[in-house]
Amino acid sequence: MSEREFVIPIGPQHPALKEPANFMFKVEGEYVVDVVPRVGYNHRGIEKAMESRTYIQNLYLIERICGICSNAHQTCYTLNVEEVLGMEIPERAKYIRVFMAELERIHSHLLWLGVAAHEIGFDTLFFYIWRDREVVMDLLEMVSGNRVNYAMPTIGGVRRDIPADKIPEYHKMLDILAERTKYYKGVAASEKTIMNRAAGVGVLKKADAIRLSATGPNLRSCGVPNDRRRDTPYLVYDEIPFNVISYDGGDQLAQVLTRVDEVFESVKICKYCLDHLPDGPIREKFSPLGKVPEGEAVNIVEAQRGELIHYIQSRGADKPYRYKIRAPTLANIPSLVERLKGGYIADIPIVLAGIDPCFSCTDRMTMVDEGKGKQWDVTGEQLRRYGIEWYKQ
Amino acid sequence: MVQAVDLVQLLIFPGFLFILAYAMFSEWVSRKLAARLQNRVGPLHTGWKGILQPLADFIKLLAKEDITPSAADGFIFTAAPLLIFALPLAALLLVPIQSIASLWSYGSVVSFEGDLIVVLFLLTLVILSIFLGGWSSSNRFAAVGATRAALQMLAYEIPLGLAAIGPAILYGSLSINTIVNNQVKGFMAFLSAPSIFALPVAFVMAVGFGIFTICLLAELEMRPFDIPEAETEIVGGWQVEYSGKKLGLLWLGRDVKLVLASALLTSLFLGGPAGPAPIPPIVWFVLKTVFCIFIVSNLSVLFARYRIDQMLKGSWQYLVPLAIVQVMAVIALNGVI
User: Is B214 within 8 Å of chain A by CB?
Assistant: First the structure.
């Protein structure tokens, strides 16, 4: 380390991070030379906890992985369980699930826009966006009864129906959202101080984005139109017309514009769902004590932050034998490090926030021997034996 | 007897007590304005519409634990908040507010030829104390913040000085009191005999007002120039290690600086506390400074924070040349008139 370099720790507690994670920044003056990320401050053992709960109980556990993408996790979980069960859910339930997923995307992207404005010191925009985000929060509450954990998808369908007489009101609220978001897009694209802080900041090259397996808006802002909803459609996304947004540039402005445009697309999808809601029941029956036959399944859902992968392994009991979650933030961290290198200290918050990180979704453990500096993988069977041995002591 | 009057002037009105009370009032005005502009409500519960909130904050901080980091340079670390508080307070004694001899006249507590230079010098010393305070606290974030404060000073110090020189040249004095007097005289002369030359003078002075306001925003570390304390970037910047009484003093010092900034704007460009007779100068002072605070708060909610390099570049590319041109225009106009 040269004499002019020193290390600035960002996190685990830092105003720019809403959740605990640690980044060691080697800086030279105001320039960032190198970054070492470290996650793992928020490991809650959810995968293990799922193995001791029934499938219905797990519904409520899994949506508490994250406060922002709770519905995405739950959707992916129910898709997994239904695939192992071999259950086909009613069309109406599929549409309602898509409707919820897109509402959640709108709320998450607006939240992110506000946070991004706050990170570059534009608090006025932050307050305005969050005020208008209340519209979608109210809408979520009207549909599901809840503002944060909606508990809408359940095994076999959804838990609440959308009443026909409410649909015009929902349309009106979606119109307000689209109109306000259009205004904010104009602000973001014309205000010079925002351009100063966002354009050309934290650039990720297209090749690097693909090489480092970036996902979600983080990838799409680099000019790669990659979206699970279109590429491997689940639910009824193959029936709904929508565009996959992608922007060239790979800087923070592209991230902002990608997310803003995705809000418009989501509004369109929501309106389509409301207009084309098929009649029929909203769920198939699944008993709270129901057993799931032996089998395994993997499902990928396009959450707000990118590809969300869930894996389930069942051995015929009323509880999953093994459950594995890979949240999008984990896939985005290598590209985030790439974005941060060579930038300014002042740009750290906006670039960090740029991937919309959710560290509580991401955290996991690994086996390391600190003395020898070694790290190794363990199989599920080894882990099970380790657990049994540990409890025997 | 003269001494008693001097003491009252220095300690009570328009000296320390009034300035401190007015500083807290100014903070409330600026917070409330910024809150309303951002669609929030601002302070609400302490006193009428939260008017006592700054006082409550100050008292709370006095009661909090005061920690000096073991790695810090204790003497400088303690001296910096005192200086940051005392220097703008001292500078305000040079700015005309209200004379206590007569209800209808104004005057500063102390006045002499060249006190404008002293005020600008004290403003620079404040930044120096900020740098020392941040640097002595031996914190990485504070070190970055302190460096940024010093760098930022390089950017706005010169246009600030140049913009202040404009009125000094135009009204032929380096004493703030005389500048105000001559402004009033000039305005009266204009009212009795309107002249076409008043138009370019007003325009040039408006430009100076703008430059001075922008520089004061940087001096006050308000958005978009809150670079040294940028919360999301370097936590609290240079003041990150300060707590308890010292933080209380820092906050009060910032409020006093807000009053000093608006009072300087008022004195140099808006005719100071002078105004038509039925209203005493103190009321004019309050009205005009609140107007200045309104401008400053309004500007501070309109923009995103600049990066330090952008700020330096922008200042040397646009602000400094503009300030030089403005001073040259003032000299030219002064020759014509």
Answer: no
The pTM score is 0.86
Are the C-beta atoms of residues B180 and B96 closer than 8 Å to each other? yes
Residue A183: what are its φ and ψ, rounded to 5°?
Answer: -60, -45
> What is the chain B residue with the closest CA to A343?
B307
Residue A1 has pLDDT above 60, yes or no: no
Can you spell out the DSSP letters for A78-138? HHHHHHHHTPPPPHHHHHHHHHHHHHHHHHHHHHHHHHHHHHTT-HHHHHHHHHHHHHHHH
pLDDT band with cut points at 50, 70 and 90 for residue B337: low
Q: Which of A14, A197, A344 sits opposite B304 (nearest CB)?
A: A197
Q: Give the model confidence (pLDDT) of A166-220 as tens digits.
A: 899 999 999 999 999 999 888 888 888 888 888 888 888 899 899 998 998 989 9
- Spatial contact of B306 and B225, defined as CB atoms under 8 Å apart: yes
Distance from the Cα of A128 to chain B's closest Cα (Å) equals: 7
The domain locations on chain A are 46-362
**Burial call A93-128: b when 16+ CB within 10 Å, e when fewer:** bbbbbbbbbbbbbbbbbbbbbbbbbbbbbbbbbbbb
- Token pair of A65 as six digits: 């992985």
Q: How far apart are alpha carbons B179 and B206 in whole angstroms?
A: 16
Q: Is residue A317 a contact partner of residue A308, using CB atoms and an 8 Å limit?
A: no
Task: Write the ipTM.
Answer: 0.82
Tokens of B152: 């930022």
Which of A30, A118, A125, A352 to probe the B interface (max B CBs under 10 A)?
A30
Question: How many CB atoms are closer than 10 A to CB A148?
Answer: 15
Contact at CB, B307 and A196, closer than 8 angstroms: yes
So what's the architecture of A46-362 in CATH? Orthogonal Bundle (1.10)
Task: Give the C-alpha separation, B321 to B317, whole Å.
Answer: 7
User: Which residues on chain A are in Cβ contact (under 8 Å) with B40?
Assistant: 127
Q: Is A120 within 8 Å of chain B by CB?
A: yes
- Cα of first residue to Cα of last residue in chain A, in angstroms, is 46
Give the residue from A347, A367, A303, A351 showing the smallest Cα distance to A329.
A303
